[in-house]
Structure formats: C-alpha cells, structure tokens
Amino acid sequence: MRFAVPIFPGSNCDWDCINGVEDVLGEEVQPVWHQTSNLDGFDAVILPGGFSYGDYLRAGALARYSPVMESVVNAANEGKLVIGICNGFQILQEAGLLPGALMQNDHLQFRCDFTTLRVENNQTSFTNQYKLGETIEIPIAHGQGNFTCDPSTLKELQANNQILFRYAGTNPNGSLDQIAGIMNRNGNVLGMMPHPERAIVDWMGSADGTRLFTSMLQAWKENQGAA
Amino acid sequence: MLKAIIFITLKESVLDPQGVAVKNSLHTMGYQTVADVRIGKRLEVVLDTMDLQKAEEDIRIMCEKLLSNPVMENFTFEIEEVDESAICSSNLSGI
Amino acid sequence: MLKAIIFITLKESVLDPQGVAVKNSLHTMGYQTVADVRIGKRLEVVLDTMDLQKAEEDIRIMCEKLLSNPVMENFTFEIEEVDESAICSSNLSGI
Amino acid sequence: MLHESTQTVAQAVKTMANEPTPENIRDQELYRNMGVLPEEYDQICGHLGRLPSWTEVGIYSVMWSEHCSYKNSKPLLRKFPTSGPRVLQGPGEGAGVIDIGDNQAVVFKIESHNHPSAVEPFQGAATGVGGIIRDVFSMGARPVALLNSLRFGDLESPHVRYLFDHAVAGIAHYGNCIGIPTVGGEVVFDPSYEGNPLVNAMCVGVLEHHELQKGVATGVGNPIIYVGASTGRDGIHGATFASEELNEESEEKRSAVQVGDPFVEKLLLEACIEMVKKEMLLGIQDMGAAGLTCSSAEMAAKGGVGLEMNLDLVPQRESGMTPYEIMLSESQERMLLVVEAGRENEVKEVCDRWGLQSAVVGRVTKGNRYQISHQGALITDIPVNTLVDDAPVYQREAKEPAYYAEFGQVDAYEQVKEVDPQAAFYKILGSSNVASKRYVYQQYDHMVRTSTAVRPGSDAAVVVIRGTEKALAMSTDGNGRYVYLDPEQGGRIAVAESARNVVCSGAEPLGVTDCLNFGSPERPEVYWQLSKAIDGMSEACHALSTPVIGGNVSLYNETNGQPIFPTPVVGMVGLIQKREHITTQAFQQAGDLVLLLGDTKVELGGSELQHLVTGSISGRPPVLDCETEQTLQAALLEAIRQGMIQSAHDLAEGGLALAVAESAMSGKCGVRVDWKNELPTIAALYSETQSRVMVSVRPEDGAEVISFFRERGVPIHEVGIVTEEPTITISYNGQVVVSDSLASITKLYEEAIPCKMRASSMN
Ligand SMILES: Nc1ncnc2c1ncn2[C@@H]1O[C@H](COP(=O)(O)OP(=O)(O)O)[C@@H](O)[C@H]1O
Ligand SMILES: [Mg+2]
Predict the structure, then answer these.
(1) Annotated catalytic residue: which of D47, D67, D166, D717?
(2) How far is the centre of ligand 2, averaged over its atoms, from the C-alpha of D636 (Å)?
(3) What family, per the record (chains B, C) (predicted)?
(4) Assigned CATH topology for domain B2-86
(5) Beta carbons of A20 and D464 less than 8 Å apart
(6) Per-domain residue ranges for chain C?
(7) Which of A1, D207, D242, D554 could share a disulfide with D211, CB 3.0–4.6 Å?
(8) How far lies A118's CA from each of A122, B50, D262, in Å?
(9) Is the pLDDT of residue A76 over 50?
C-alpha cells in the first residue's frame, strides 16, 4: 500500500505521519510537495496536521488552493482513502470534501492534551480494527477544533453513521454533539481533530492510534482482494 | 438600545503577517492586481441604554482598555440607534 | 487604485465564543449595559486597477472562494478609489 | 561594487538629509538619547579618527549596549566554567553545543525577552521564542524542544493576569505554529515582578557533528546573503531598550515592539536546514538583537575580515526607510549567510522553493573596514573590530545590601511554627506557585514531532532521539526568593535543582545555559547580588561537572526604581542512555515503598510556607552543600540505571508534603505516609531543605535499595507506601496531618490557577 503525505508550507505533523505509517505498517509512504498536482500511484492520502500557511485567515483556508488539493479531490472522488488529521481535517472541510466547519475552541485557547474518544462506528475503512463503543486515548492539539454545522447536516451525519469518533470525556473544544471525527457519505474520506500518529507506542502515552492505520491497510487489502 | 460598530486596524508600520499570507494566496489564485491586504477587526457592541454621550465615553474606554491593543492598533467607532428586535439573539445568554 | 473594504461577520445562527467572552469581560469591568458583542473581520484589499466593475466581480469571488467561509460567515464590501500614497506601504513586498 | 579597502583611517561619510550632523551630535550630546555615554562617545571618535555620523553612533550604541556587549557583566561571567571534554562549542556563538555520542550533539540556549513582553506581552513573548529558535538552527541544528521560564506579579492584579495570559498565548502561538514542542518550564508569581515580568525562552536542538555551523564571514569576495522576512521599522533600538529600566517613558518607545511571523520562521528553518545538509554555508547568523548591524559586524569581526554592504539591496517592507532604520531594525525571521562566491544561485533556488525572499546584500572584503552604502553614498565606515572587541567594559562597585545582615538575625521557623500543619498543606497546594501549571502547558503543543516521552508535569521533560536508544532530559529552574535572601546559596541551588530534576528523570546532566535576570548593575547592591549569584552558580557547575555553554544577561529589570528579585534561571540538559531509564515523578504501583533520600533540616527562609503565612520572605534560604548534592545525584542516577527506581521526585517548593501529593496525583495512586523523626511537624513536612529526592521502589527491592544508598553515603528514610485506595494520608510521628481523597486534592491543585484567571484581565 502506498501512502502520500502532502506537505504544505507550515505543515508540521508531516513527518510524524510519515514515521507513523512506517513504524506501524512498514508500508511505503512518501512526502508530496504542495505544488505537485499528481497523486497517481498512491493508494491513500494523509493530510497532516500543523499550521499550513500559518493558519492565517482561517485554518486550512489558504492550503485549500494549493495545487496538490486538486489531486486530493480527485483521489477522493476515485474512492481512494483520504484522511485529514487536525489541520488536514480543516483543509478537507475548506475543500468541500467534508461538511461543517471547525471554529475556534469555545474556551478560546489552544488545547493540547490526551482525550478519550468513543468509537461510534467500526464498520469503516478507518475503524475496522476497533470495537464498537470502545474508548481510546488519543491526543489533541488545536485552537480551532470546535465542530459546527447546520442542524440538517448534523441529522444526516447521525443518520448515515458518519460520526466515527466522539469525545467521551469532557468536551475539549465545544464541538457540536461531541464530534471528534467524521467521514464522508462514501466512507473513504475521514477528518478528525485528534492525532492518531501521536499514539502509536506506549512511551507516547498510548498506542491506541495504531489501529487506525492497520484498519486502513486491512480495508485496502480487502478492496484489492475484491477487485 | 445603541449599537457601536468598532473597527480595529493595525497601525501602519506594524507587520501584518496574515495580510501578507492572504495576499500571496490571492496572487496564486490569479489575482495579480492585488497590491496589498491588511486585516483588522469589526466589532458590534450593543448597549442597553439610550444615553448617547455616555455610550461614546464608555465605548472609547472599552476600546482603550480591552478591545484594542494600543501598542499595535488603532480604533474608530460609530454608534447607531437600534431597536431591540434588531439584535442578534444568539449570544444573549452567557457561556 | 481601488480599495475594497470587506466586512466578514459570523452568521446570526452561529455562536460567537469570542464575542461572549468579551461581553463577560466587559461586564466584569463594570459595563453592565453591554447586551451583546459580535466579532468579525475587516479586510482592506488594494487593487492595482481602475476598473470598478471588474474589481467588484473579483472581490465578490475572492470573498466567496477564500475570504469568507459560507458555512459560518457572511460578507459585505464597499470599494473606494484611493491614490497611491494612501496605501499603507508596510506590506508592499512579498513575504 | 566590489572594491578592496585596506585603508586604516575611516573615510568621511555622508550625513542623510533629515539627520543631525556629526557636529550637532557632538555639541548637543545627542548620543545620550541612544544610551551612549560621553566617555563612550569620545572612544568612538578615537576609533574613527573623526566625528561619527548619526547612523554610526546608532551602530555603536547597539553594539555596545549591555544586551550585545555584556559590558557590565563580562568580568563576572568569566568565572563560569565553560569547558569540558564533551563541549564542542562554548559561549560565543548562537548557542552552545555538547557531544552526546554517535557523532551527534545537542545544542541549547536560553534568552530573555522581558522588556518587550512587559510592553506587549503576546508579541514580546512570541518573538522571544522565535529569536531563540533561530539561535539554535543557525548552529545547524534541528530544534527539538522548547522551554520557558516565566515570572509575573501577583495574579490578584488584572494587569498581571493580562500579562500572564497574553505572554503564555504568545509563546503558544509561536511554538505551536512552527511545530516545535514546548515541553517544560516554570512559572512563578511574586509581587517583585509586578511591573517587570520575566519571559525567558529556551530551545534545544540536535545535530550531527559535521553539520555544526558558525557565525563567521570568510573568503574575500564571498557574498553576504540576506534571507527571510523584509525589513521594516519595527523594533528599532530593541537592544538598547532591553538594556534600560522600564519607566513611564517606555510607553513612548512602543514602536520598538516587533511582530512575529512563525509561519515565515518555519520556512526559514526548513530552508536553512536544507542548506546545512547540502553543505552550502560558510557562515550563518541570525538577525536578532540589533538586527543587520550585529549579525554582520560579528560575522566580520570573527572572521578577521571587513565587509561592505549596500542597503539598497536589503528587502524592505516600508518605503523611505533611512540607513539608520535599516541597520537597526529588529524585524523578525531574518538570517544572514555567507557562501562561496558562485553559489548564490543555489541559495536562491532553495529559498525560492520555500517561498522565501533572499538577496545578495554585500561582500566580504580584505582588511577590517565595515562599510555600508546607501543610494550610492558611503554612510558608514568603521573598523569592525572596534564594534565587537573594543566595547567598553565596566567594573561596577559591589556593596552588600543592608537587608542581608538584618536577615541573618531572622528565624523563619519562629514565624511559622504556630501554623496548623493541615491548613498549611491546603494553603500551599492552592498557591499559584505550587499548584498545577496545566493552565499554561495545555496551551502548548508539547507532543508535536512525536518524540516527547515525558510531558510537562514531571520534574524534567524527556524527548527521545529517533533512531537511537538515547533521550534528552531538560529542565529550567531558578528561585528568585532564595537568591534575594542569599545570592550565593540561591545561585548554587538554581544549578543543583535543575541538575537534580534532570537526574530524577534518569539522565546525566550535561551542561547549563543560563539567563541572568537582575536589576540595574549600576546599583552596587544589585551588582553584589549578580556577582555572588555567579559565584554560587559557578561553584555548583564545577561540582556537578556541568559547564555553562551559553546564556544571556538581562539587566535593568526594574520598575520605577525597584529592582526585581535577582533571578538567575538555569536551563539544564541531560542525556539518558537508554529509553528504559526514563523515570518520572509518578507513583507506579500500589504496594511500592516510598523512600526519602537526604536529610531534612529546619529550613524555612524564603519558603512557600513563609511567604503564604507572612506575606513576605526573610531569613536565610536553605543551604546547599555541593558535595552532598553530587553524592546524591550520582547515587540516584546509578540506581535508576540499575532499574531499582520506580519513580523519583525532587523535593522543592512546599517540601515533603507537596512532593508526596504530586507523585500521587501524577500516578493517579493513593499514598500513605507515616514518618517518624525528631523535627517539629511544620519543618518535617514543609522545610525546603535541598539535596532531597523522594523515590518509590518495588517492595521486594526495598532492602537492597536502602543498603545501596547507605553504602554510597546517602541518608535514606522509609516514609510510606503507595496504595490502591485513592487517598492521600500523611501522618507524622503517629499524628494524621492530611487525609483526603486523591480526587479532592487533585481538584484543588488543578483548579487554583484557572480559578484566579476567570476574573477579567486588562491591558
Ligand atoms: N511555563 C511553563 N511551560 C511549560 N511547562 C511548564 C511551565 N511551567 C511549569 N511547567 C511544567 O510544570 C511542571 C511543574 O513545574 P515546577 O513546579 O516548576 O517543577 P519543579 O519544581 O519540579 O521544577 C514541570 O513539568 C514543568 O515543566
Ligand atoms: Mg523540581
């Protein structure tokens, strides 16, 4: 399985994601400069966290117009697995691949901490290695992770089981419906504020993030087998 | 009720990194004519009073002490009369 | 040259946590009459053109595509004529 | 523009239209406005062989400011031990460098941004972080961690809350955005910092030996290349500003505030590291204090060459800037490079790809002339070594302050002995100085780069080095109260405590970077404090084999004539050989034995308890014996490496009682302490005696651990046991002093600062 990790000016979790894929899966993973507009040959894309373009204007807004985003949109439309973590989630929303918006945290501060998440759907390409309702420890680090959307969008997300992760403890940012991560209708694009790549070895404080990566590999293999 | 519309802008010689980044993005998007971008704030403060003079005084002090940072920013404001129903209701309750 | 002054405000239905926090601070400071605070942005975009109609079109698209987020924000703008010297020079060159 | 200048007498230079003439400057003593003294002005005239122009006086004034030249502190700083077998670079470059084996080295430095933060806390603190990061990557290192040491007045004041909140937010903004984890630090609140907060930022980086860079210009004809953000009018005279006391007039100097752009710094960082990896650079130096002036002059002086620059080539953000403004601007996120002639395009190619500006602005010349031109005219011609090497040095007068003798008569224990020990516990637990600093560090991304093995909240932070078994432990410490009461003891304690923190995490202390935050050296009492503190620090550094490899001096920390507590801050970095040695303060397992290393004395001068009870401090601080400390640290490190220790926590503010509570809270375990001793209860539980560490060990290892420490001459006492039941019970000589649920104690500890911050703050 080949992973692409686009790097925007200001991305700073790019290498964490690359190391994560290598350490957990040992699969091929490549950094892709934001000016590249071709992602053919990759099976999955990880939009990393950080502060693309300094998070100026709105987090993710300026990155959305980087050339690489066109091919990310194409990859998503082709059904490839795309995951946006933290800033990557914000970019996916700005690009219209995921609904809603991430506003400033309700307490107005940046927040870095471990959070407890509940896995709300384990029948997906990103969560098939988790148990339904399982709680996992994954860190957050963001100033704008307060998920919001209009009531009809929320209903749809709930009805279609698109909410994959909710904050199970205290809501760390004011997110609507405790939402920590959502998937698109097709099930191949995930956006989440918590950082699974920061929870892959015990000394990091948790290894619960590993199974997100192994889930993706599993889904891809099944898909290969089916094809 | 009175509503103050307050504009807070960066002082001229203060760097506006955000403005620079937005300008560069607009260029990348093809808007080469964009010569400059500066980003400031616009605040609406609704006051439950009809005393215009007092309101002006209060708003000025609020701007100086809390709403703007006199080291880096300038402010201007205008005050208008509004009726109750015009006020956005979504923030009326506290956190 | 033309200068667009753009105002970006949160939609009414969207809670403005910063506005609420500022309102609470103003209360603590003794300004009990403050009934509501909403915080938005004010952008100045200077365009190196004199074509008003084109400028209006461009600015509208910039607002729709980049400067505002339609999920949570509204925008309005006005365009005025400025002479070169009126432009804040501090951001003239690139990064 | 290249011409060889070998003449030794300065040429007459042009005076700009709106500037005072050299004669005006002399006759009206205008140099005084820039902080240049009459005798210094005379020296400048002597160096030039003529009257200096306005720009030239400006250049001398910043180069000879305390911030750049250390003219008041140099003779004292010579006392620090600065060398050692592993030191690859001592003081004098952007940051010091220490070998950590496998051809790798650690680079670190601490720096103050106190005065800018007093005037504009958010940007002041943010640009402090930006500056220290540049110091580290200009050495060729990849920054891997940030720390910060903060001092503010009492949180009761709305303005202090504003300063605190905004400074922390500024640090968070810069570090989070650039993607370097902020893993540790300290925050102390004391009225002495009310008008003059301290914001010290530390950065730690890692490099391969061959990547080590220097700030030096070499090779006649080689280009000087400017990289990074454009130059604006911000921060002009920041270096001088940093060397003055704060007073009402500081308000007027607000133009000196710089705005940081961490996004551009991230690009600059990546571009510079790429150039280092590609071995493109001969010299690199960051434009920090005194901007283009300091970086270019220091590089030339160090290389024993001259240089010429054309200011028209300098990227400028504002129109109509004068040479004075361009030379003295402290715009952020800029770097100066020297490369071999012919490689200009390679630099440009890298910078372009990162979206960064770059420009060749000058050349290295033969001789020693520092020649600057602007719009076709020569506007500065100075023998460059006179800027760097000939800065004046002042031997100030030192005088023991009257309070010192008076405090010798004070018995701190007498002041607090009647306090109810239980009430004291809760009071200390909820004091802003002791209570949890989560409010601060949860705003910092402390996990980015996925190498943080010990997050904030333990004695030292630990960052692993990917691809190796090694890890780095780091801590900052400095107790201004102790230093005020006795600068020599306080200086020793600052070094010893930071080393102890690092040892508690399983590391061998490697070296020190220090930031000396003091009042005006022109006050004999302050100079005495400075001198004595340095004596104490030096002694401890010798004893613990931790050389000082770099640091920063911040003097004139006063408001309206009132100096702050003398506050040397020590940044310590240690090396952990194997990941399995990493140890934290958290209790691990119910049933583990709790042991206290070191003897406790009645030492309450300058203690948290004394301050809480009396509202001030007096008497003598705890005594630090270097030999005892060294013995303790060596034994503890050996025990950790042998796998005998489950947790280790240094005893500091609040003494034994607080250490017990902190280890329990960190480990989410209960604890039952039942200790018997001759000391009175208050002293036993709250004394801040040094050279003590609380460890926990597996019950089956207890006997072995006890004899291990006894054999090595370290006193050891069994004081308690870790429990399943989530309760903290502290009994002393059979009397229960504290017995409460872990949850309610944790709540008090965690809520103390957030609770105070809920009130409003005002600028
Ligand atoms: N300004 C700060 N930034 C980051 N971490 C901090 C800061 N202040 C305190 N901390 C963290 O909180 C913990 C407790 O700090 P402190 O009480 O000063 O520890 P100690 O007394 O052991 O030196 C440490 O892990 C420290 O790194
Ligand atoms: Mg400690």
Answers:
(1) D67
(2) 15
(3) Belongs to the PurS family.
(4) Mth169; Chain: A , (3.30.1280)
(5) no
(6) 2-86
(7) D207
(8) 10, 51, 34
(9) yes
Least confident of C9-13, D736-740, D747-751: C9-13
Residue having the nearest C-alpha atom to atom 25 of ligand 1: D457
Cα-based distances in Å from D529 to A153, C23, D304, D350, D521: 65, 46, 37, 49, 9
Contacts of residue A103 in chain C, CB cutoff 8 Å?
14, 17, 72
**Domain shared by D262 and D329, yes or no:** yes
Write the burial class of residue D487 (CB in 10 Å: 0-12 exposed, 13-18 middle, 19+ buried): buried
Antiparallel, parallel or unpaired: β D306-310 and D369-374: parallel
Query: To test the ligand 1 pocket, which listed residue (D437, D438, D472, D474) has its Cβ within 8 A of the most ligand atoms?
Result: D437
Q: Which residues does C32 contact at the CB level (< 8 Å), separation at least 6? A: none
Nearest-by-CA chain A residue for C18: A108
As a CATH number, domain A2-226 is: 3.40.50.880
* Residue D188 CA from chain centroid, whole number: 14
pLDDT of residue D351: 98
Handedness of CA D389, D358, D230, D366 (dihedral sign): positive
* ∠ Cα D78 D82 D87 (to 5°): 160
Stretch C5-31: mean pLDDT, rounded?
93
- Same domain for D353 and D225: yes
Helices (H) and strands (E) in chain A, counts: 5, 11
Q: What is the pLDDT of residue D236?
A: 77
Q: How far apart are CA D738 and CA D455, in angstroms?
A: 28
| Ligand of minimum distance to the alpha carbon of D186 | 1
CATH number of domain containing D305: 3.90.650.10
| Alpha helices by DSSP H, chain C | 17-28, 52-62
Cβ within 8 Å, pair B95-C21? yes
Task: Report the side by side order of strands in the sheet with D358-365.
Answer: D283-286, D334-338, D223-228, D358-365, D306-310, D369-374, D377-383
Whether B28 and chain A come into contact, CB under 8 Å, resolves to: yes
B28: nearest CA partner in chain D:
D355
Kindly report, residue by residue over A11-57, the tens digit of the pLDDT: 999 999 999 999 999 999 999 999 998 999 999 999 999 999 999 99
The domain tally of chain D equals: 3
Greater confidence (B90 vs B82) lies with B82
Q: Which two tokens stand for residue D494?
A: 């600052």
Tokens of D126: 């943010």
Partnered with residue D201 across adjacent β-strands are D111, D148
**Per residue in A165-221, pLDDT tens?**
999 999 999 999 999 999 999 999 999 999 999 999 999 999 999 999 999 999 999
Task: Name the residue ranges covered by the structural domains of chain A.
Answer: 2-226
Q: Are residues D659 and D696 in the same domain?
A: yes
D249 and D301 in a single domain? The answer is: yes
CA of D242 to the centre of ligand 1 (A): 26
Total residue length of chain A: 227
Closest CA in chain D for residue A200: D450
**Residue D15 beta carbon below 6 angstroms from any ligand 1 atom:** no
Chain C positions touching B49 (Cβ under 8 A) are: 33
pTM of the full structure: 0.94
